[in-house]
Fold each of these.
Amino acid sequence: MIAADLEEHVTAYLRQARRLRDISDHTVVAYVTDLAQFFSWVRSERPAAALTHHVIEDYLGILRAGGLKHSSLTRKLASLRGFFSYLCQEDILIGNPASLVKLRSSARRLPAYLTRRETDRLLALPDTSPRGLRDRALLEFLYATGARSVEVARLGLEDLDLDNRTARLFGKAGRERVVPFGSRAQAALVEYLASARPLLAAGRNVRGLFLTLHGKPMNARAVQYVVDGYLGRLQLGRVVTPHCLRHTFATHMLDAGADIRVVQQLLGHADIVTTQVYTHVSQVRMREVYYQAHPRA
């Protein structure tokens, strides 16, 4: 079958993916972009070519030659594999050509994280205004749990158990997990809920735990915006993203001797391979400490 003939099935695929896999709007946009770029290239460069893994390899090879990062190539290949798998399930296509495509391995970039001192500086930045109390509770919660921004945005008041210091998070594909948090996060949350959230809610019955200055539940983008603002104030001299608090949580846990399986569960990783990248970070830190401390290093 010619690749260009399959473009009409993209909308149905995205509708099914959203329904069955509970994917985010951000992921849908990424799928749409990846598939649209592929079919645009096919119409231009291979209009009469049969859909084989060689066509996909040629496409990805051109993107690689253009300087596209390995992580982006991996995502685009995953988008194609998912789409063609759907076509096979619907008996539109026989065999998934993308499943035969292998990308050359690339050294995985170690995630950026904050040191203990940098983390302390970050958590000390918010003031005592209603906004500052909210931000302190948000930052403390993110560092205490390693939660994703979207998971924090989904939090409702009923998902928080302050007495037992646990929170119920809903991760990727709707996977639910209960995570603990420490006394400092608890204190920050108590103060926020008592002194700041009622002012932000302004008498309205709002489900979300963290609210905007207009009294609406914060979405993932708003959470990231707040974190990014405070990270910028640290003036670290290196690039760090809001996701670095999740990396910081995992790295500090492993540095302190936490079992990697426990960290995997806390982070909500389905596969421990995803968590193992943090062991490399910890090994880097261990080498640094060794060379600084050992008399014969």
Amino acid sequence: MSTNVLRTPDGWWAVRDEHAVRIDTKAVTTAGLLADRAAVREAAASGESGTPVADLVALPPVTTPCRVVAQMVNYRSHAKDSGFTGDIPPTFFRKASGSVSGPHEAIVRPAHVRFLDYEVELGLVMGAPLPVGTVVEERDLPSYVAGLVLTNDVSARDVQLTKTQFYESKSYPTFTPTGPYLALLEPEDFARLIDLRLRLNVNGVPRQDRTLADMIVRPAQALTLLARFQALDPGDLLLTGTPGGTALKAPPKPVEKIAALLPPALKWKAFFNGQAKNPRYLRNGDLVTATIATPDGHIDLGEQRTAVADAT
């Protein structure tokens, strides 16, 4: 059975239902905590009544600095929304770890960003080094992945599209809300990953809702492909893509063909004039809620509640 871990300004806690027991560890980083799994197990098995989780202030359970890597267009529903057809080559990009924020902190929209989008994603937290050249089979996942976190890959679409710049558009501070829980998995839990359901609402209205069955490149294959060129270490984070339902969608094919005939400046002007009418982009005061869990709650990464605020 997985163990949910919460991080607060006072340290680390093992979560049991609505209460949490402090973990007796000197670890200050996620990597340090993963090296002290005995302390986590001791707290989880403790007979203490614990502290109500509602009384604790959750910090991101992935500490920084760390590597934050993400997969692009990794759900069939998202590929359809994005206008992709046929085979999609697996693609990775980096995010600045300074973008990692807490599960209840505000998402701050920079003043120059007009089109702010959301992407609920399952995050894999590494528990062992992944050297370049590693081949990861499904049975090997427990040897490399320690646990899971709920993340939101917030995106400045106008920056991303006009500059074809993923790193900047997804790396502003607060653009990777993470947590509340780090779910530390036991080997038998990995068979349940396919049942995980990703959900994201904006102001209570459902926007994204899919299981991992919609995923194109699953975790073992993703780690193998990533390890062709990128090493990972304990505590590093891999975001595994988002399902369909984001604010950004590809224009209809006839419109896309006409736009291709325009000079770049006119093409982008026309595109963003159209996007300005899209009510799904995040705005000041919006509330984004997200969850990832199996239907039976065997794995439950908790709920994110993040308000959207304009930069002052």
